[in-house]
UniProtKB/TrEMBL annotation:
Keywords assigned: Glycosidase, Hydrolase
Pfam families membership: Glyco_hydro_3_C
InterPro entries listed in its UniProt record: BXL, GH, Glyco_hydro_3_C, Glyco_hydro_3_C_sf, Glyco_hydro_3_N_sf
Organism of this sequence: Furnarius figulus
Single GO BP term: arabinan catabolic process
MF annotations from Gene Ontology: alpha-L-arabinofuranosidase activity; xylan 1,4-beta-xylosidase activity
SUPFAM superfamilies for this protein: (Trans)glycosidases, Beta-D-glucan exohydrolase, C-terminal domain
Domain called Glycoside hydrolase family 3 C-terminal: residue spans: 103-226
Transmembrane domains' residue ranges: none
Gene name linked to the record: Xyl2
UniProt-recorded name of the protein: XYL2 arabinofuranosidase
Amino acid sequence: MLGHHYTHTFLETAVASVNAGCNLELSYGMRNNVFMHIPQALAMGNITLQMLRDRVRPLFYTRMRLGEFDPPAMNPYSALNLSVVQSPEHRNLSLEAAVKSFVLLKNIQGTLPLRARDLPGQRLAVVGPFADNPRVLFGDYAPVPEPQYIYTPRKGLETLGANISFAAGCREPRCQWYSRAEVVRAAGAADMVVVCLGTGVDVETEAKDRSDLSLPGHQLQLLQDAVQ
């Protein structure tokens, strides 16, 4: 609210938030955050003790239900490790969720899905800044990924047995520096081209908006060169 000029001070923001029913602040690790001013607001009579108790109660009720105050031995989730989280069952479920979340805008002549049985002997080009760059595949507020579990488009397609050629064209999503020759060389020798474009958190994220929906930098040129 402070950043949007709805309020002018942290104290005013704390009062307005608590009175509106907000009971939790995402403080970004700041020591001097908004809700640190709640005691001052309480002392000044801007909020009541009963209101403060009403706001705190559901927070601690939820934390107790989650077992945060239980001895670790009582919480079965405390013993989970990557062997459980990254078990074949969980990885297969994640794959199923990913496959079912695709939005297919066009499928001219039934090009998709690519079938592993049809790819041996085919020459496949994978191009673009998202083709083999694990760092840019994760969106805002994503967990820190384990590199061993990341499959880029290039790495995933290589498991299907096709003859893969790769050209990033530009190293990062901003695509300020672009190698047309690299893309043309890879795409020109292929039977099929997979172009991997987008934005990523380098270009847009929370508090980093854009004024248009155009592809960044030379990405549109990269796409046109691949199509040509």
